[in-house]
Amino acid sequence: MSFITDHILTWVTFLPLLGSLLLWTVVRRDDHARVFALAVALADFVLSLHLWFRYDGPGGQDMFTEKVAWLFGGKINYHLACDGISLVLVMLTTFLGPLVILSAWKAVTERVRDYMAMLLFLQAAMLGTFFARDMLLFYVFWEAMLIPMYFIIGIWGGQRRIYAAVKFFIFTMVGSVFMLVAILWMYFQAGGMGLEQFLALDLERQAQLWLFGAFILAFAIKVPVFPLHTWLPDAHVEAPTAGSVILAGVLLKMGTYGMLRFAMPLFPAGVEAFAPLMSILAVIGIIYGALVALVQPDIKKLVAYSSVSHLGFVVLGLFSLTPLGVAGGIFQMLAHGLSTGALFLLVGVIYERRHTREISEFGGLAHRMPGYATVFMITMLASVGLPGLAGFVGEFMILLGTFGSTTLDHPRLLTALAATGVVLGAIYMLWMYQRMFFGKLTNEKNRDLRDLSVREYAVLLPLVVFMFWLGVRPGMVLDRVEASVERVLAPLAVPASPHADDYPQHALGGGTADAPVFVVHEGEAHR
Amino acid sequence: MTHFEMPLDATSWSVLLPYLVIGGGGLLVMLVDAFVRTLKKDHLSYLTLCVFLASIVVQIAVHPGEGPRLGGMLLAGDWSRFFNYLFAGIGIMTTIFATGIYDRDGRYRPEFYPLLLFTVLGMMVLAAANDLLAVFLGLETMSLATYILAGGVRGNVRSSEAGFKYLVLGGFSSAFLLMGMALLYGYAGDTNFDAIARVLATGGGATILVTAGSALMLMGFGFKVAMVPFHMWTPDVYDGAPAYVTGFMATAVKAAGFAILLRVALLLQPQLAWAWYPVLTVFAVLTMSLGNLVALVQNNIKRMLAWSSIAHAGYLLLGVVTLLSPAVGDPARQALARTVGESAASAVLFYLVGYSLMNLAAFGVVNVLSNRGGEDADDINRYAGLSRRRPVAAATLAVALLSLAGIPPFVGFMAKFYLFAAVVKAGLVPLAVIGVINSLVSVYYYLRVIVVMYMKDTEADSYDGVEWVSVATAGALAALVLYLGIRPDAFHAAAASVIRQLPF
């Protein structure tokens, strides 16, 4: 096994790619393609479990490092590594991988082979993005992600799929090409493309502002941060179910991951200058996303806008620059990946049966589909942030972190506004649930709907289990993340928080909950 | 003036050998066609392929050393070897693409093969030229043969128009070039590059002559590489010529043009960078932007690729601009100047190869479909549903187009990376930004073709059968596009070493 464990990151990353190549070249029949793709995705998940159980990086260090000279005799390297932040997002990716393939089992009947190959290709590119520690390598993976997603939306999507696919592609490209120029510029300052070389740079303030702008544009489009979010509803609505799940589950996290890994530690001056703006945009996104979700007649659009709202929380958490807020942001990424991924799967389930997503077409579904209603209920509550489920932990930590932020201008006002987003979230979700599931079964077409099949349970139950698990044992994730967060944010040199003891190792670190929990001090007078 | 008594010793012969193989091969093909009665259609193309392969073998086997040879007329060594390989490779691909078409459409054109060989001969001389006379000889040999190639589809009005247009405008540009050379000769008193370099270094002579002369020469070369505002012929000619000829022109002619442009830019850089740098900067930006913007609205794939090739000429010009930038000319920072110049020039070489690969892959597929569907065969909408009917052809074209758009992990991205890296290294960040904005615009029209191929469907299958040798060749090129996109380093290092071998 050592030939695998010695290069574990390469294996985890490129196994799906190998699978997609085999799908294109060797596998001929559709049903074989499905089984083969599922097997590859499961194998990849098993491989990534090795990371999960072996990762114990002291001080949140990178582990499993692989570094091979790539270009210019070692100035640019094939450099993969994994720390706590990468780890949790990679686990989310490999965990969603097989579920997504299973979800497309019956829904996709055209060009099954190509579809499965694209999903695996996408997975490889996403994993590479999380592992890359060389800026050019990161960029290559980051851009390569566009290709399969573009095809997934454009070939297997809905009515306006071509518009959505091209919009998705162009929007994302717009951001990233400027990042490329910024990367090139820094490359000549640093003499290499390694992230650690970039971090070692001591740049002037003016340069940092420009570079931060170039980086943040790329990431903000991907997240998406209001007002750059307009591609998202289109892409989500038109994408096939599996595409939406990956998009919401993982792809959007690329943006927040990029902020955390690159934009924030590399340019402290940029963060200092832009943090107020970013946090305001985040809050606008939270409220705006929720308000727009409220009035959507289409379930999928509703979920799509709820993503804008939820990702706003993540951005707010990151730019609160408190360990609590940042760790909460990461946790929220994970929780959102589970709950919104599951919501899209659930939307896909009903769409497969009824070929409509209009909320008004439904009503009283709980009578016909009790299993579906139950799973939907749990997922919806997780998304809303009910205590005990995954969504609560992240949002709560973010709000706490923002409240105690010493760097933002009006932390308490921002927190209060963001909290209204939680309330609005509960409103649009519960109202949608009520209209779909409660009341009398009025629409004749819904009379003989089948409840969830075994396959659909197999897709959804793992997600539900983890929504509970993360809700009651968040320490499982936070333990692995916290040290890495400290390490990544070290260059920012945030003025010591007056309530550093609230840091989750006491508060939420599973098992040590005897320490004072959630004590919120008055934030010091802000600048 | 250099005296032209050629010492025809063993070294000189070894320098000449690749040129003799191609030129003699051309004559041989012509004679075989004229006198061998029992010839089957394919035989000439096999013979042509053999000639190209022989020239490659000769290049590998014979090492005449580095430096000017044959009384200073030609530059021997890695530089010319690099371009000779490139031209031979493009020639081989073009032969393959052309052959498949002849088999089917009944318009068998035996004269194509010797003309192709003569064009390549001209390009080889042009790229290796170390003397203004050799430049003109090579350029005219190349151009005359290309005029006929472009207009070569007998009975096709658009092709005839293309050939004629190209001929007339090409004649103009040659006249400019010749006038420029005359002025440069008047300045330096010699046509040899080394001699001109010496005169430039000492600073003697009338500056007005060299400035005006180089400006006129720039026009001539600009015409060949389709630099805006000397690009007007490109769309019509590329559209009218048969697709395999268009592919050849868009790659080989462009590469030859940039080879000599690079040489002349390097030659004049010490004295004339101040004049060329701003002018070429404007031209490069115009070329990129106009090419991309007009490509956006094309419905004919050949016209689209024509405008896209203009845009790519703009990116390549960025490399030349970088070469002439103040950072390279800065005598106070010799070390930096040297590395910037080197990385710019090697980026141009790498870009030329990458561009040739992806463009040939694209034209390989376009060519196969172009000759099948009648008048509107090149309409992009006719590609609807291609991915279902011809998955390999569609995938090849998709890879080629994504690469042209500069998306990783294809060679087009790496080529742009090296190029923009050199631009940024020279401190020309605004130019790099303009460059990336341009490649952003280009994404849209490249994607459009992919959208049609993969995301739209038609009932009618107008393309009956696809010539599989061409498709397989294009597919192999696409595989190379992918490979060089992932492992570009060895090849880029080779390009850099080619640059280091140059005398100036």
- Rg calc of chain A: 22 Å
Please, how many helices of chain A?
Answer: 22
Mean pLDDT of chain A: 85
Largest sheet of chain A: 2 strands, antiparallel
Q: Helix fraction of chain A?
A: over 70%
Q: Main beta sheet of chain B: strand number and arrangement?
A: 2 strands, antiparallel
Total strand segments of chain B: 2
- Regions with little confidence, pLDDT below 50 for 5+ residues of chain B: none
Task: Bin the strand percentage of chain A.
Answer: under 5%
* Largest Cβ-defined interface: A-B, 31 and 28 residues
Main sheet of chain B: which strands, in order across? 1-2
Number of helices of chain B: 19
Name the features:
heterodimer, A: 527 residues, mainly alpha, two-stranded antiparallel ribbon, 22 helices, 72% helix, 3% strand, disordered C terminus, B: 504 residues, 19 helices, 77% helix
What does this protein look like?
The complex is a heterodimer of chains A (527) and B (504). With 527 residues, chain A is mainly alpha-helical. Chain A has a domain at 273-520. Chain A contains 22 helices and two strands. A two-stranded antiparallel ribbon of chain A has the order 1-2. Residues 496-527 of chain A have low confidence and may be disordered. Chain B is mainly α and 504 residues long. Chain B has a domain at 275-504. In chain B, helix 6 packs across helix 9 (233-240), helix 10 (243-295) crosses helix 11 (301-324) and helix 15 (391-404) runs antiparallel to helix 17. Chain B is globular, with a radius of gyration of 22 Å. Chain B starts with 9 loop residues before the first helix and ends with a helix. Chain A binds chain B through residues 70-73, 136, 139-140, 143-144, 146-147, 150-151, 154-155, 161-162, 165-166, 169-170, 173-174, 177-178, 180-181, 184-185, 187-188, and chain B through 402, 407-409, 413, 417, 420-421, 424-425, 429, 432-433, 436-437, 439-440, 443-444, 447, 451, 454-456, 488-489, 492-493.
